[in-house]
Amino acid sequence: MIWLVGAVLLLIAEMFTSGFWLACVAIGCAAAGVVGLLPFTGPVAQILTFAGASLLSMGALRPALTRRFLPSGATALRTGPEALIGKTGYVTERIAPGHRTGRVIVEGEDWRGMSSDNSILEPGTRVMVLQVDGTTLTVEPES
């Protein structure tokens, strides 16, 4: 039962991380838990099953999951403000040259915005996020 509880806890922890490493270990725990339920299996069989299933899932399942769920070339899911890179929004308050910030709405949230090339961006201009620096988004006009 300890193996199965460990598998559930690892799957819950995987929801807060990225990369699918904990999910692969959870699969190993689940396999060891199933072997542990069989009669006449000892701890050695469980540990070998855990190691084998974990390595097998890391070699076979993890690459398929990363291809399916992670952006091309990414090593982890972008979350928080970093997830805004590449998203589009619009200017709500004029962005002036000289690194003076205005306001932009991206994904329904209001952010400070700064032009990437120090150009003037008027309210209503559609923009794309290039960079996130704290609470300021560096944007450029959408082409």
Overall spatial form: rod-shaped
The sequence of SSEs as H and E is HHHEEEEE
Taking the alpha carbons of the first and last residues, their distance comes to 57 Å
**Count of the domains:** 2
Widest β-sheet, arrangement of strands: 1-2-3-5-4
What is the residue-mean pLDDT, rounded to a whole number? 87
Q: In terms of per-residue confidence, which ranges show pLDDT below 50 for 5 or more consecutive residues?
A: none
Share in helix: 25-40%
Rg computed from alpha carbons, rounded to a whole number of angstroms? 23 Å
Helix/strand/pairing category: alpha+beta
| Count of extended strands | 5
**Tally of alpha and pi helices:** 3
For the report, how would you describe the main beta sheet? 5 strands, mixed, barrel
- DSSP strand content: 15-25%
Structural commentary:
Helices cover about 40% and strands about 20% of the residues. With about 140 residues, it is an alpha+beta fold. It folds into 2 domains: about 1-70; about 80-140, Nucleic acid-binding proteins (OB fold (Dihydrolipoamide Acetyltransferase, E2P), Beta Barrel), CATH 2.40.50. The protein has a 5-stranded mixed beta barrel with strand order 1-2-3-5-4. A hairpin with an 8-residue loop joins strand 1 and strand 2 (about 100-105). Helix 1 (about 1-15) runs antiparallel to helix 2 (about 20-35) and helix 2 (about 20-35) packs antiparallel against helix 3. The protein is rod-shaped, with a radius of gyration of 23 Å. The model has no long low-confidence stretch (mean pLDDT about 85).
